[in-house]
Amino acid sequence: MQPAISIQTVSKTYKSGPPALKTVDLDIRPGEIFALLGPNGAGKTTLIGICCGTVRASTGRVLVEGHDVVRDYKAARRRVGLVPQELHTDSFESVWATVSFSRGLFGHAPNPAHIERVLRDLSLWEKRDAKIITLSGGMKRRVLIAKALAHEPRVLFLDEPTAGVDVELRRDMWVLVRRLREQGVTIVLTTHYIEEAEEMADRIGVINRGELVLVEEKAELMRRLGKKRLTIDLDAPLAALPDGLPAEQLALSEDGRRLTYSFDAKAGGSGIGTLMERLRAAGVRIADLNTEQSTLEDIFVELVHDERPAA
């Protein structure tokens, strides 16, 4: 099956500074929701700009449903809807006028029924005659989404669509994205919100300092969420792990006062009971126990952790 988006050896370097985007190879499947996570400045917006044809790649190419975004720009762009981070729109136009105009920009004939459906889906119908300048920030964000959907794109890019908006809009967005996916639209979402990716995505990519460091099925990431850690505070420090303990799952702190035992909570048995018996047999006295479960945020932070050199 042809990918909805094929990103082939794409990189971007501006005239000053380090590469904004290192070599990226990625295929995004038709009808999937792909979440791209990364800190500020990681390269998310640059990659989306290249995919939409608004930023020229230094190397490589991007195909949208087989159409090159540079050589066949019009055909590729017609298939793409983009919701940018910035709240740029025509302040003195009405909601209806600006959304309808966006449809015409892509060469589509007027379709008032479709525009009405989009506005109703985004709770904008009652504001259809209001000027953009009179709307709240959350309503302006909804207008941007409506403009991106006006020409019925097959691929929708959402660049931090819920950043700084209220919980109601975020929930409405989740409902709308699921509905679009049911209609066969491919969704690419960038977000700072881990729960947003966890709620909606089929696959998750993590980008840091211009490098795509992880692309994985959400189900596999959720399997990794089953990892738990048991921390064991010791009554007296240990110089080393006693013999007969599971060294591959057990770590001793530098001061010898804490053991950390990692295990899969979804597996048939945690092995904690056996561990406790072996510790008692080895004469290890326990002061306290605590368990904690890793989260998707833990995995994300670990992947993008910036190991800065010492000053």
From TrEMBL:
Gene Ontology molecular functions: ATP binding; ATP hydrolysis activity
All residue ranges annotated as the ABC transporter domain in the record: 5-234
UniProt KW keywords: ATP-binding, Nucleotide-binding, Transport
PROSITE patterns (alphabetical): ABC_TRANSPORTER_1, ABC_TRANSPORTER_2
SUPFAM superfamilies cross-referenced by the UniProt entry: P-loop containing nucleoside triphosphate hydrolases (SSF52540)
InterPro entries: AAA+_ATPase (IPR003593), ABC_transporter-like_ATP-bd (IPR003439), ABC_transporter-like_CS (IPR017871), ABC_transporter_ATP-binding (IPR050763), P-loop_NTPase (IPR027417)
Alphabetical list of Pfam families matching this protein: ABC_tran
Family: Belongs to the ABC transporter superfamily.
Protein's name according to its UniProt entry: ABC-2 type transport system ATP-binding protein
Protein species of origin: Enterovirga rhinocerotis
